[in-house]
């Protein structure tokens, strides 16, 4: 009897400790989100993957009218700048006409959810506050975002104890293999906007492009019949891809899914070939998977394990009239089989 009582006491203490670690982790992640939206900061970081480091420069600030301003710049190779004034994001690249889109986020190596509501991914990931270490000469809190299943990766974040800002991020497999990491090399927080952001505030950005609503809303012929739990469609369209080898245009259907943290792109098209064995390549955590089965070519791209990409590709099915009607009303929902 005494042994059973002691065991129950130990279990309750352990559960309480886990709950406390989870709550602490959520508070840190909420502070990260708040800091990314409200602080004026200048920072540099490198994305390290496949034994290659890609450097970036990132400026963020809040104007007097509360408008968020951002500049993301890639420092190696052809210059690529991303500018943001509030809900207008502009992309400036060489040999391409500058353009703007309506968005509150920039397409960068930093996951969008980090500046949003972290509770949106609680069904798919666990949050664990681990302990403190030292990164970039600063005291950092380590928070783990751990996948609840085998179909996605886990993320480790080192957050500045003073500001809550990100100092380092690493992506791990379920077996603990490091795939990719982001290491910050400079961080400066200030009360005033940087000079570059002051200039951005008064700059006229390129014109906003408008998407073709007819193509965006067009019913697709194919759908993904399996996705890890928590993934849902956020965009789909059909477009023409010039096929230089065949001398004609190729209709490609595109679907973009997200679990809040990770995005998966799926491309489906008819092929002149009947079969091609699966081919894949990895870029850090990102897998690029392609195969042809029964004349249907499927490509899957995302920061997911190879087995997940393969299972998604093999689940592609034709959309029946009944499914078209249902999907129009509620979209494609990810479901675990």
Would you mind describing this structure in some detail?
By secondary structure, the chain is an alpha+beta fold. The protein folds into two domains: 10-202, outer membrane lipoprotein receptor (LolB), chain A; 213-336, MucB/RseB, C-terminal domain (Phosphorylase Kinase, domain 1). It is 20% helix and 45% strand. The longest helix is centred in the first third of the chain and has 37 residues, at 2-38.
List keywords for this structure.
337 residues, alpha+beta, outer membrane lipoprotein receptor (LolB), chain A, Phosphorylase Kinase, domain 1, 2 domains, eleven-stranded antiparallel β-sheet, six-stranded antiparallel β-sheet, globular, disordered C terminus
Task: Examine the secondary-structure arrangement and name the CATH architecture of the largest domain.
Answer: Clam
Radius of gyration: 23 Å
Q: How many domains would you count in the coordinates?
A: 2
Give the full name of the CATH homologous superfamily of the largest domain. Lipoprotein localisation LolA/LolB/LppX
CATH class of the largest domain: Mainly Beta
Determine the N-to-C terminus distance.
Answer: 42 Å
Envelope shape: globular
Number of strands: 19
Largest sheet features: 11 strands, antiparallel
Spans where pLDDT lies below 50 across 5 or more residues: 10-17, 321-325, 327-337
Query: What sequence of helices (H) and strands (E) makes up the elements?
Result: HEEEEEEEEEEEHHEEEEEEEHEH
% residues in beta strands: over 45%
Adjacency order of strands in the biggest sheet: 6-5-4-3-2-1-11-10-9-8-7
**CATH fold group of the largest domain:** outer membrane lipoprotein receptor (LolB), chain A
Average pLDDT over all residues? 87
Helix content: 10-25%
Structural class: alpha+beta
Family: Belongs to the RseB family.
Pfam family, one: MucB_RseB_C
Organism: Colwellia marinimaniae
Subcellular location: Periplasm
């Amino acid at each position: 009897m005494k042994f059973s009582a002691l065991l129950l006491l130990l279990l309750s203490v352990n559960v309480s400790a886990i709950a406390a670690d989870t709550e602490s982790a959520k508070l840190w992640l909420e502070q990260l989100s708040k800091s990314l939206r409200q602080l004026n900061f200048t920072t540099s970081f490198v994305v390290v993957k496949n034994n290659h480091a890609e450097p970036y420069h990132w400026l963020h600030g809040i104007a007097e009218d509360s408008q968020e301003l951002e500049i993301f710049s890639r420092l190696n190779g052809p210059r690529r700048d991303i500018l943001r004034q509030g809900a207008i994001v502009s992309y400036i690249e060489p040999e391409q006409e500058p353009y703007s889109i309506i968005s509150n986020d920039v397409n960068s190596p930093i996951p969008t959810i980090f500046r949003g509501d972290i509770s949106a991914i609680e069904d798919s990931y666990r949050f664990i506050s681990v302990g403190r270490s030292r990164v970039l000469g600063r005291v950092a809190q380590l928070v783990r975002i751990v996948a609840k299943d085998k179909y996605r990766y886990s993320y480790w974040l080192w957050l500045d104890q003073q500001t809550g800002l990100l100092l380092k991020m690493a992506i791990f497999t379920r077996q603990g293999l490091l795939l990719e990491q982001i290491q910050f090399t400079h961080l400066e927080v200030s009360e005033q906007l940087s000079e570059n952001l002051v200039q951005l505030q008064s700059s006229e950005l390129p014109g906003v492009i408008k998407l073709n609503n007819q193509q965006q809303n067009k019913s697709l012929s194919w759908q993904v019949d399996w996705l890890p739990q928590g993934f849902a469609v956020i965009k789909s369209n059909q477009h023409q891809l010039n096929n230089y080898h065949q001398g004609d245009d190729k209709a490609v259907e595109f679907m973009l899914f997200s679990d809040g943290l990770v995005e998966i792109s799926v491309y489906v098209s008819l092929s002149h070939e009947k079969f091609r064995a699966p081919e894949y390549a990895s870029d850090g955590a990102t897998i690029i998977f392609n195969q042809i089965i029964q004349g249907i070519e499927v490509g899957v791209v995302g920061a997911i394990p190879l087995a997940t990409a393969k299972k998604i590709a093999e689940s592609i099915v034709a959309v029946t009239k009944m499914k078209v009607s249902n999907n129009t009303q509620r979209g494609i929902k990810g479901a675990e089989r």
